[in-house]
Amino acid sequence: MRLCTSSPSTRSPAGPVGRFVPALRFVVAERCPPHRHAGHAETSPCKPRTPKQPTGVKARHDPEWRVDVLPHLQEPAPIWAVTPALTALIVIQVPASAAYVTIQVAAPEVARTTGLPVEFVGVFTALSYLGAIAGGALTLSLLRRLGAFRACQVAVIGCALALAATTLATVWALIVGALLLGLAHAPVTPLGSHVLAARTPPAIRGLVFSIKQAAVPLGGVLAGVLVTAVVVASDWQSAVWVMASLCVLTALLVMPLRAHLDDLEDAPKASRTSPWREMCGSIRCVVEHGPILTLVFVGCAFGAAQWCFTAFYVAFVAEDRGLPLVTAGVGFAIGQAAGVAGRIFWGAVADRSGRPIRLLVGLGIAMAGGLTLLTLTDAAWPKAVTLALAALVGVTAIGWNGVLIAEVARRSPSGQVAAVAGGFVAFFAVSTIAFPLAFAAVALLVGYAAGFIAIALLCLYASWRLYRQVPEADDDRADDDCADA
Q1: 52 and 91 fall within a common domain
Q2: Does residue 398 share a domain with residue 343?
Q3: Residue 40 sits in the same domain as residue 147
Q4: Which position among 113, 330, 405, 478 has the lowest Cβ density within 10 Å, counted as fewest Cβ atoms?
Q5: Residue 334 lies in a domain
Q6: pLDDT at residue number 392
């Protein structure tokens, strides 16, 4: 759009729109003659205006006039435009996320049959994130060689193979299964971000990404209900095989959609860059951009709350507080369901308010309070209160994810969303190796309550750091070449 500075006598009448400029707060621009802009910018009376984001719409009464509406007056972007891609990614993400927490949900029975202490679930989670370091950092390589959606299909099949390995019920089988599970699961989120980033209007980005990320706790709901039911009816190996079969079935079910979602830009390309250099490029893009690095730190802290709740809630409630396993499984499912609702709700709030950073700060404070209250749980408490606390932790400690990932995508260089998201997952994985191990050690030495209190303090510090270091900026993208190694 161009703003014309010519005299009033040379301007065309603005018509009905121009007469209501003060009331509607429209900025009307006259379409200037094309020859004035073709190499003659110094003589043109029309000075270029570069808006921070395109907001122009054509005036209905005259197609040659354009009206730039202030952001709060823009027409809402249609979410149905990205519904096919969003639906396909949710269908893939749900079983992949359910597979990732299957062993955690079945942890008491796995520990009983293998002779391991129930706290082994912390080691299993840490090993899975050790595999996720490589999986997240290699996302860009998978994208270039397979295409985004095909790589998602391969990833969910990899989750099924990893679960199958754990059914051997030996220590080494659990170690190998955990590593493979992290390697296969890690690329799903950044690949999904790549598919959506090019198809989602900025006005609804927070909501769309939050809906997509809501599939993660929805997978937890599926695992909490399905795995618990199969374990009670049969054994934990049967539950694992059911979940693995669901992953394979999902990969086959979405096969017809690949041709529509892996477009020309996502098609496999021959790359002269080694996977190692692509991995380093993804990490470098995160490290060299301050706001993205701070968001990554906050994601790691909030992720500690999310995954320690996911990994240890059932063991904490059933083993430490003496509640029945079924009650613990129901509480786990309620927490995950609250996370689903929270991700969608917080995404809509972020888009509506336009202040995602302040929203994340508030969520960090709220999840710290929820974790602190969780440590007070007792078997004498009414069951409804215990389940309500699980919902409170779920809606905050799980609900933050979509808002933060959308903000990372917004601040990423153009065309490098998958690279930055892959680097984010790699850092996220490193942190979640340390936190479950540390939590398990604290649980053995002091108790679960001390571990949850420590995570709550970490969330408070992350919220303070986010408030001080990352402003609510209209446009804070990294340089376009930051992902080059």
Answers
A1: no
A2: yes
A3: no
A4: 113
A5: yes
A6: 92
457-460 contacts at long range (C-beta below 8 A, 24 or more positions apart): 457/368, 458/301, 458/304, 458/305, 459/301, 459/302, 459/304, 459/305, 459/364, 459/365, 459/367, 459/368, 459/371, 460/364, 460/365, 460/368
As a whole number of angstroms, the distance between CA 356 and CA 406 comes to: 9
Task: Give 220-283 as a DSSP string.
Answer: HHHHHHHHHHHHHHS-HHHHHHHHHHHHHHHHHHTGGGHHHHS-TTTS-----S-HHHHHHHHH
Tokens of 9: 């006598």
Alpha carbon distance, N-terminus to C-terminus of the chain: 36
Cβ-proximal residues to 92 (8 Å cutoff; 6+ apart), any chain: 152, 153, 156, 188, 192, 250, 251, 254
143 and 244 belong to one structural domain: yes
- The reply to whether 252 and 138 lie within a common domain is yes
Each residue of 292-346: pLDDT tens digit? 888 888 988 998 898 788 878 888 888 888 788 788 888 888 988 898 888 889 9
Which pLDDT score, from 0 to 100, does residue 416 have? 66
Range of the domain at 309: 79-274+287-469
* DSSP-derived secondary structure for 452-480: HHHHHHHHHHHHHHHHHH----S--PPPT
Tell me the sheet residues that pair with 57: 67
What is the rounded distance in angstroms from the CA atom of residue 24 to the CA atom of residue 243?
56
Do 112 and 191 have their domain in common? yes
Task: Tell me the pTM.
Answer: 0.62
What token pair was written down for 219?
């997978």
Residue 480 lies in a domain: no
Predicted confidence at residue 351, as pLDDT, reads 83
The answer to whether position 336 is within a domain reads yes
Whether residue 257 is predicted with pLDDT greater than 80 in this model: the reply is: no
Label residue 273 by pLDDT band (50, 70, 90).
Answer: low
Q: How many residues does the chain have?
A: 485
The domain tally of the chain equals 2
Choice between 124 and 259, residue whose per-residue pLDDT is larger: 124
Kindly state the tokens that stand for 405: 């990932």
* Residue 307: CB atoms within 10 Å: 27
* pLDDT top residue among 31 and 103: 103
CATH code, 144: 1.20.1250.20
48 and 116 both lie in a single domain: no
